[in-house]
Amino acid sequence: MSLQASAVESGGQPGPGEDVPEKKGASGGGFRTRATDLLSGSAGRNLGLVIALLLLCLIGLITAGDRFANVDNMMTVLRLASVIGVVSVGMTFVITGGGIDLSVGAIVALASVWATTLATQTMASDVHWILMVSTALAVGAGCGLVNGLLIAYGRMAAFIVTLAMLAAARGLAELIADKKTQVVTVGPFLDFFRGSLLGIPRLVIIFALVAVAGWVLLNRTAYGRRTLAVGGNPEAARLAGINVKRHQTSLYVLLGVACGIAAVMLMARTTAGTSTHGTLYELDAIAAVVIGGTLLSGGRGTIVGTVFGVLIFTTLTNVFTLNNLDTSTQAVAKGAIIVIAVLLQQRVAARSTPG
Amino acid sequence: MGAAHQAPDESAGASDRQPLLEMHDIVKHFPGVKALDGIDLDVRAGEVHCLLGQNGAGKSTLIKVLAGAHQPNAGRIIWRGEEVRLPNPQAAIKLGIATIYQELDLVDGLTVAENIHLGHERRNRWGFNAARESNAAAAELLGRLGHPEVSPTTEVGRMSAAGKQIVSMARALSHDAKLIVMDEPSAVLDQEEVGRLFRVVRDLSAQGVAIVYISHRLEEIREIGNRVTVLKDGRTVATGLEAKDTPTKEVIRLMTGRSIDYVFPDRGAGAPEGDPVLEVEGLGRTGEFTGVDFTVRPGEIVGLAGMVGSGRSEILETIYGARKPTAGSVKVAGKRLRPGRVGSAMAAGIGFAPEERKSQALVLRDPIYRNVTMASLPRFSRRGFMHNAEERRAAAEHTGALDLRPNDVERAAGTLSGGNQQKVVLARWLLRECKVLLLDEPSRGVDVGARTEIYALVRSLAASGIAVVVVSSEIEEVIGLSDRVLVISDGSLVHDCPADEIDEHQVLDMVMEGEVA
Amino acid sequence: MSATARSRRTRTLTRIGALTAVAALAVGCTSNTPAEESNGGGDDGGTTAVSANDDPGETVTIGFSGPEADHGWLAAINSAAREEADKYEDIEFDIAEGTNDPSAQIAHIESFISKGVDAIVLLPTDGAALTEAATEAMQAGIPVVNVDREFSNEFAARVTILGDNYGMGVSAGTYACQLVEENDLGDAVIAEIAGIDSLPLTQDRSQGFEDALAECGQDVDRRVAAEFTVESGESAASNLLQAANEIDIIWNHDDDQGVGVKAAFENADRDEFFFIGGAGSANAMRWIEAGEMEATVLYPPTQAADGIRLARLLAQDKGLSDLVQVEVPRRIVLNAPVVTADNVEQYMPLGFES
Q1: Is Transit peptide among the key words of this record (chain C) (predicted)?
Q2: pLDDT at C226
């Protein structure tokens, strides 16, 4: 039964950006093959982003010198990246699972407002600031649950459901806050989240923890595997016994919780909760995720890429501000860098994929 | 299959004319792969030229070269005596070469006429699309194809696969094609539709249009082809064989490089014994099928024969819990399953290899091992964390046992041939040590050589004590593979008998007529 | 949802929202509105002239339409207008639902015309888009008072009341110059945190700032733009602080985003500079009182309230008492005063909660 002598297919090969580790012996020859081996790993897939970020840092170093390359500035960049970073890690899961969530910014706003109402803050200062945190997380999870149930069980398009949530959550946030900025007065809350550990701001540590947890969850657990399967081919996942609807719902809840965490971080960073928090997070997060290399159509996701995506954006703004560039120039350069980063990413990924 | 065996005779006069198309020594490299390594092909006007070869033999690449989608690294293409280059698809279309791909490239949201004229829309003198003129022209083309009943204003998304094929052909004709390349046009059609397709092909060749016809089904080639070219490993191993006079064995030998006696494995000695492991009682789903009763013993292969739309695939999916029955029950080893729950069926030991392997069974981008373990994730996770090494090892063990070649579980499932993909799906269920295996069209998209292997595998799985239910639109396959044949017509079971007591003609009559002949 | 002057109705809703919170979260929260502070619009700091203008006259109907109050300053403007109208027994106040849709606002004007109101006070979402509707009203004999955002045609309004964005910049710049001189800063490092950069009002403020600084030989060394939100203020300010190790003076255009800007100062542990704000929120006033902020430049949230007063005078055929001219002037540009620790008490009533 050795009829299937060769399974080499001429057509139907995976497109650029696919990850097909080539294990064949090096028949083609030296450098190319070794490079291919090197690029086929996780490092290789993100090499384009690494290059883009390094280039950006180089530009920062040349144009702003010490003002760019000092620990304080690095920490500022990381601190500014941390909030949108947490949301983007959550977004990576939803997009990998074949969904989309436009309501993240609004959920962040609602969670921040709900957790900073006079009543919540009064209770928090009487009992413990953890009440503010749990309020924000519960609001985030609740919004995510509503999104997920409507999408998975209500069979509505994710785009529409989360667009509705975007409007509703921000509206509710405005009603609760009366469109005012609610200043955080709970001292211990601010002290904790604005503090540092070993010279690293706690916000940055939270971001790192969320990213590591996200990476493990996506790459090392059955949950992550199911996420990839549900995003890659929901019908096949269903027929393989995966509860697709429940899984999809859980992805939105997960993102909702991430939004709750982000809200807490933002409350600490700005010392306030307001309905204008999280403006345009949906676009920033989706952009970071996609630049990172997660497929917008689902089925492939990379947390490392997402983190790089976020860092590229934040570093960009930092370098521009250090150079005193006006906002219009920044916007033009931002557009250019997005295209360059994705191009680099595609080129490198194509090299690491035979055919 | 047994019917209509007259091959068209128009080719007799065409044989000494100058070829319409000649391809000499075509070579095409992809990084790491030599897809074409010296292809020769000549096609005459008005003939049906069959192109055969296993998956990976280079058929797809060759037609892409011919369609102008790929540029060959070497070789010459001669069109009506003149050497030509086909730098892009437009150039090929301009010459009169039209290609109908396997995945039909039609736009679902547009009408038949709009699809036919896509890219060369009829315009009135103000530059707007001239709908009426376009519809009239489309109607004329459809009439020429012998399908005047297809309305030019129907939305293509609402049409059957067969209907779409007709539209694709009409589009080819609208470009005034002299040569139409058809890539496995019969793959998604049932027998009646195949019959209509053949009528159209014959009409076209009678009008002087040359057809390059690619198929896995050797019997079709005998029925419709004039001449045959066989490809293997990117080379032409035989060309210009007369379709009528070349024995099937010889064609298979050329394709696979070895000769095989018969594609179906022997049934085991003696009928399987023991209590039925799968019991289906009065199963029904409103509007699809009713009152389906049958049982399968361990080690037995039961085949369901029926036309597309007879309800055969629906029955299988309902047993598996992917559809919720409106009546009846399914028992495995005496235990009743929760209706409409895939989880319940899986837990009881049912495995299912669906009809559309690529869209229903596999995550094509993912490596093989992940596709194998997809239904057994809890087994490889400790407190939620995946045990990757264990997972790869177990997957490789099962794919190895099924003779997956190459047995490299890191490859993306999408890079595999149809036969190997089927093995991946089977490995998924073997990993779960399933008791019952439901196979919907197990050989769809699998080439001849690999089919034999799949059949042998199914038989050996049965021999190991698994109860197997096979659904197929190829009656020959149902009879050849099964111990027992169930005939489905119009949503009900019309016949149940041992496979060696029935032949293709009887089954064909029953699926058509709905009663015992 | 009504987005006009935030009043009792919204507060009730807030409570409902808050109560839902209790039910859903068991974390509990009720009304969150901080202790009511009197919003702007009161008698402006004891400058009332003695006249008979405040005596009740014939009852007049005044129609008011403004944009949705999605920003602290706009919310303040609406509530100030309402409170002003409530003060006069002879004003029948007809307030339309706040909207950011010019066509909805045009519809409001048309309904005012058909109702036959005596005067209209209009804060347009877009001055140009509402010029036509306002002209119609004027032609129908109804005087229109145009507030804050100017129409494209002069004849569309009887009176135009404007805040002074350029003047804000000038005030901030002049005050910065004064600081440089008083503290002997020499060539001071001056930074500017603007609002949304594409808005004309932001450009006007920046221009005024630059022009005033030039008068004393200073310039803007660092400039970043935020988006009028707390969060954007924090990010912009954080990056700004990294860009310069030593800053002498920072002018932030908007006190709403100022909450974030101030958080960024605390996050970076920096306070070597004079911090000047803009707009004049109650938060900013409190900071000034507490010595956490040097000054803020007022952009009065009383324009609509002034508009209501003038509309009443117009409808009752009265003039401005302190002018010799017997008629109400055509154009009033409000001053942008600097609020510092010295005079914050006086301006506190004008500070709006944001």
Answers
A1: no
A2: 92
The reply to whether B227 and B237 lie within a common domain is yes
Q: Per-domain residue ranges for chain C?
A: 8-31+56-163+301-318, 165-298
Tell me what pLDDT residue B257 has: 59
Residue A10 inside a domain? The answer is: no
Chains A and B touching, counted as 3 or more CB pairs less than 8 Å apart? yes
Distance from CA of B299 to the nearest CA of A (A): 22
| Residue B50 located in a structural domain | yes
Which residues of chain A from 271 to 330 reach within 8 Å of chain B, CB to CB?
299-300
List Cβ neighbours of A331 (8 Å cut-off, separation of 6 or more).
none
Supply C261's token pair: 């800007």
The fold of the C8-31+56-163+301-318 domain, in CATH, is: Rossmann fold (3.40.50)
How many C-beta atoms surround the C-beta of residue C214 within 10 A? 13
Residues B205 and B242 in one domain: yes
Beta-carbon separation of A229 and B366 below 8 A: yes
Set of chain A residues whose Cβ sits within 8 Å of the Cβ of B35: 8, 10
- 3-state helix/strand/coil string of B96-160: CEEEECCCCCCCCCCEHHHHHCCCCCCECCCCCECHHHHHHHHHHHHHHCCCCCCCCCCEHHHCC
Per the structure, the count of domains in chain B is 3
Q: Do A225 and B362 touch (CB under 8 A)?
A: no
- CA-based R_g, chain C, Å: 21
CA-nearest of C203, C200, C223 to A330 is: C223
Cross-chain CB nearest to A176 (options C32, C240, C245) = C32
Q: How far apart are CA C211 and CA C145, in angstroms?
A: 31
- Which phi and psi (to 5°) does residue B12 adopt? -50, -45
Residue B336's domain is classified under what CATH number?
3.40.50.300
Q: Tell me: the pLDDT tens digits for A298-325?
A: 888 899 999 999 999 899 889 988 888 8
Q: Are residues B70 and B191 in the same domain?
A: yes
Q: CA distances (Å), B144 to each of B32, B120, B176, B193, C124, in order?
A: 45, 20, 12, 17, 66
ipTM of the complex: 0.78
According to the CATH classification, is domain C165-298 in 3.40.50.2300?
Answer: yes
Distance in angstroms (rounded) separating the CA atoms of residues A124 and B285 = 57
pTM > 0.80: yes or no: no
Alpha-carbon distance of B341 to C79, in angstroms, equals 59
Tens of pLDDT, residue by residue over C117-135, are 999 999 888 888 888 889 9
Of B137, B160, B177, the last residue of a domain is B177
Q: What's the token pair of residue B161? A: 């696969």
Residues B182 and B161 in one domain: no
